[in-house]
């Protein structure tokens, strides 16, 4: 089932914020894991921002929608509470939007299906799958401080650094909770970012105007005299090389025409 336009907008806002918190090197394609990718809404933004991504989800129906939409990322079915089986150091980072809280639900009465066991498998295998240094950012909806404490303590036991970032803490509608985790690194890499603050946001727009302004600033920021959205030859070659390293099939070969501007056809 397709999401409403409003839900899509909220998802997009949170994805852009997660990317901001990932603090990836500018103008460098990264290989990212989208945890709980659903129909690929966040993945489309990752692709738009120049990254290569892999998405996992527990719902076959959502992955089918993503396939129908022909998203760029590779997709696989996965219960994240069972952990991952990726090669060590596979990913440059990970994001997850509105998923982490579901690991707090026990699947059965068996001890290995308890939230602590599922969280431990998840964070331990994710930590191994991430490069050193790197980050993972999760937007989630905790229902209590105890849940936040349980999640952060298990993540720390798995080897992560970092902590919780709360945007707009005084707004009932715009308030968003992010868990920003680090693998390795030092100095500024280990410093937990500050949450966004501001005046009380109108509940009708759900903080949308604030996120829109921040998103436009990010996308229009010039790096090295170029807008990030402009895909020149060097950018295209870097992304194609990253695709090849990850074993993606059907990557076009390089030629003298790579990155060349096409004349408009009328």
TrEMBL record:
One of its GO terms (molecular function) is rRNA (guanine) methyltransferase activity. GO terms for biological process: rRNA (guanine-N7)-methylation. InterPro entries: Bud23-like (IPR039769), Bud23_C (IPR022238), Methyltransf_11 (IPR013216), SAM-dependent_MTases_sf (IPR029063). Residues 246-266 are annotated as: Disordered. Residues 33-106 form the Methyltransferase type domain. CDD domains: AdoMet_MTases (cd02440). Coiled coil: none annotated. Keywords: Cytoplasm, Methyltransferase, Nucleus, S-adenosyl-L-methionine, Transferase. Residues 182-264 form the 18S rRNA (guanine(1575)-N(7))-methyltransferase Bud23 C-terminal domain. Pfam families: Methyltransf_11, WBS_methylT. SUPFAM superfamilies: S-adenosyl-L-methionine-dependent methyltransferases. One of its GO terms (cellular component) is cytoplasm. It is found in: Cytoplasm; Nucleus. Belongs to the class I-like SAM-binding methyltransferase superfamily. BUD23/WBSCR22 family. This is 18S rRNA (Guanine(1575)-N(7))-methyltransferase. It comes from Trametes pubescens.
